[in-house]
């Protein structure tokens, strides 16, 4: 899905990934990972956990339950994508409200 990055390949049914929409500062992308975990917990459909890899927060799925269906995985990904789009939009609106403009990713990374 556009704006998402696989961070490590799936190993023993665990995959790590990040929601990284273009145009968000690195600090906002980092914060977004935790916000998605909170939203998923509140939603109650499925849960991703988070961890730190190479100094950056990432999301983590473990799909070892043999009763988890392909349809349930697709729905989980759909819900996460919607949450990521909505939350990223909130970060952009907050930044604009503070009078910030443009892609800040390069400045945050330096």
Instruction: Indicate the structural class.
Output: alpha+beta
Query: What's the mean pLDDT score?
Result: 85
Give the fraction of residues assigned to helices. Answer: 40-55%
Shape: globular
Q: Beta-strand level of the residues, as a percent range?
A: 15-25%
**SSE order, one letter for each helix or strand:** EEHEEHH
Number of strands: 4
- List the quaternary state of the chains: single chain
Short key terms for the protein model shown above:
single chain, alpha+beta, 3 helices, 4 strands, 24% strand, globular
Could you give a quick summary of the protein structure above?
By secondary structure, the protein is an alpha+beta fold. It has helices spanning 26-43, 70-97, 105-109, and strands spanning 4-11, 14-19, 49-53, 56-62.
Structural commentary:
The chain has 110 residues and is of the alpha+beta class. It is 46% helix and 24% strand. The protein has three helices and four strands; from the N terminus they run E-E-H-E-E-H-H. It has helices at residues 26-43, 70-97, 105-109, and strands at residues 4-11, 14-19, 49-53, 56-62. It has a four-stranded antiparallel beta sheet, covered by helices on one side. Helix 1 (26-43) packs across helix 2 (70-97). The longest helix has 28 residues, at 70-97. The protein is globular. It starts with a strand and ends with a helix.
Layout: helices, strands, pairs:
Layout: E1 4-11, E2 14-19, H1 26-43, E3 49-53, E4 56-62, H2 70-97, H3 105-109
Helix pairs in contact: 1-2
């Amino acid at each position: 899905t556009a704006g998402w990055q696989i961070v490590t390949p799936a190993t023993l049914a665990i995959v790590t990934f990040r929601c990284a929409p273009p145009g968000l500062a690195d600090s906002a992308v980092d914060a977004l990972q935790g916000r998605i975990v909170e939203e998923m917990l509140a939603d109650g459909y499925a849960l991703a956990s988070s961890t730190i890899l190479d100094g950056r927060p990432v999301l983590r799925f473990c799909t070892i339950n043999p009763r988890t269906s392909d349809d349930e995985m697709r729905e989980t990904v759909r819900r996460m994508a919607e949450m990521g789009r909505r939350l990223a939009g909130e970060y952009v609106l907050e930044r604009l409200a503070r009078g910030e403009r443009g892609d800040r990713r390069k400045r945050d990374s330096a």
